[in-house]
Write a structure and sequence with these properties.
Strand content: 35-45%
Number of helices: 1
Order of helices and strands: EEEEEEHEEEE
CATH architecture: Roll
CATH topology: Pnp Oxidase, Chain A
Distance between the termini: 14 Å
Shape: globular
Radius of gyration: 19 Å
Number of domains: 1
Number of strands: 10
Largest sheet: 8 strands, antiparallel
Length: 148
């Protein structure tokens, strides 16, 4: 149906990592990026053009979270990392959830951990910190948004 208007607001993206909610201080443009490590399928073609398709059962993914260097989310993620490093395992593993409250998209993993802290730079003005989060079992649904 033409003539409809859909709503989106970055303020309506909810992010939680191992029980730590990040609710602001996001970077200037792209602030959440989630990418699967592997494709869902692999295919090959035989010499006569026959095609075989195989399913890859690897649901690992990497999420990058971009925060302003001034954001208190950096404190939260730094503390989560510090707490995890002090455990016998050496890492805090918990659930990861991203949801668009104005839409139907949801991305989650029951196991997530901080892979590495952000690269740190200081410049003339405030910059950004990009956190790398690994996801053990990404479940994702890319839905549309609500109409206004």
């Amino acid at each position: 149906m033409s003539g409809q208007t859909w709503g989106y607001s970055p303020r309506q993206i909810v992010l939680d990592i191992a029980g730590v909610g990040i609710d602001g201080g996001f970077g200037e443009d792209e602030f959440v990026n989630i990418e699967k490590q592997e494709d869902d399928t692999v295919d090959v073609a035989g010499v006569f053009g026959d095609v075989a398709v195989g399913v890859i059962h690897d649901d690992r993914a990497t999420a990058t979270i971009t925060l302003l260097q001034t954001a208190d989310g950096n404190d939260k993620l730094s503390q989560l990392r510090k707490t995890g490093r002090a455990t016998p395992l050496g890492v805090s593993i918990g659930a990861f959830n991203v949801r668009d409250l104005l839409g139907r998209s949801i991305h989650r993993s029951r196991s997530a951990w901080i892979q590495k802290p952000p690269t740190v730079t200081y410049a003339r003005g405030p910059g950004e910190r990009v956190w790398t989060i690994r996801l053990g079992h990404l479940e994702t649904f890319n839905g549309g948004n609500t109409t206004l």
